[in-house]
Amino acid sequence: MSFTGDLTHLIIRQSAATETSPSCDTGNEYDGRLGLRVAALFVIWLGSSAGACFPIYAKRHQGLRVPEWTFFVAKYFGSGVIVATAFIHLLAPAHEALSNPCLTGPITGYPWVEGIAMITVFILFFVELMVMRYARFSNYEHSDNQSDNESHGQIAENEHDHHTERDGIVVDNKSIPLMPNVVSKGTSRSAHVPGEDHLGHQREHQNDEANISAHETEDYAAQMTAIFILEFGIIFHSVFIGLTLAVAGEEFDTLFAVLVFHQTFEGLGLGSRLAVTPWPKSKRWTAYILGFAYGLSTPTAIAIGLGVRNTYPPESAANLIVNGVFDSVSAGILIYTGLVELMAHEFMFSNVMRKAKLQVVLAAFGMMCLGAGLMALLGKWA
Questions:
Q1: How far is Cα 141 from Cα 135, in angstroms, rounded to an integer?
Q2: DSSP assignment, residue 347?
Q3: Nearest alpha carbon to residue 117 among 96, 95, 84
Q4: For a tag site, which of 123, 241, 247, 336 has the least CB within 10 Å?
Q5: Among 333, 323, 307, 343, which Cα is nearest to 228's?
């Protein structure tokens, strides 16, 4: 009787383990149509590259007479696209991958998607904090040296004129007001008031220019950091999209159509940011390089996926974990970039938006919501 009970308990336990932990799929749903998939590679390449590079080209070639409002629309529409991509197209797939029933072990015992995204946000904040604190460019160093020289000069001037003040003369530690051009008996001297003589006026301008140069350099460093972080996150995401499309089965047609819009909109968001970034003359081609790098990311992944179409298992345990982890990292990158750089910085910390009319601010916010809404809608299919 005891033996029968133990055997029954063992069978039930094995059955439950089989039901809760099914084996991961080691194949894929590739169903041929190689020519259509190759065509998809070129269509997505054209759409992605056009979305990323056209705003840059149009901004730099005023002869095209592209209305300025189109850049306004593209900029804030693209911001919404990037924010929606983080939440709908990255967080959700990452959670789906890492919560797959076939996975076992430590990966199933903790909400890793949210944890990895949170860690990524803190890492990016630390990186940007260090860049803002320690980044030094030639102009900034020149400004610092200029400010130091002016400070030493001012100290020397103060030591030389330690008996005088701006509005008086010190005699026995007492300040006596100066009459115009009179210091003492038989002695005339004009008190220095900044801006009233040529040297004082020049010093004021030099100080202002040094402060402006330092501010512009810090702002440039922040923009460069944000741009490269955004590029990194989007390319990560695009690579896995390409691999998935390459071996998709019956859903290939729908996925292909959706990804054309997805990649074009995402490229528009990136390209509008690259277009308005104040690149130095020696690095003006960097914007195009970043745009074309984004345009090539998904097609390259599609080509790789087609090359290993007979052996690539998108639903295997290893691929589920890799996709889930990298989607979580990309989600953290785009969440940080979207909320901090594209929303808070552009709306609340931007001097342009602070001084803009309410209609302009509401229009920008509306375009951002439109971009996020359309991108979220595409999440129904891809």
A1: 10
A2: I
A3: 95
A4: 123
A5: 333
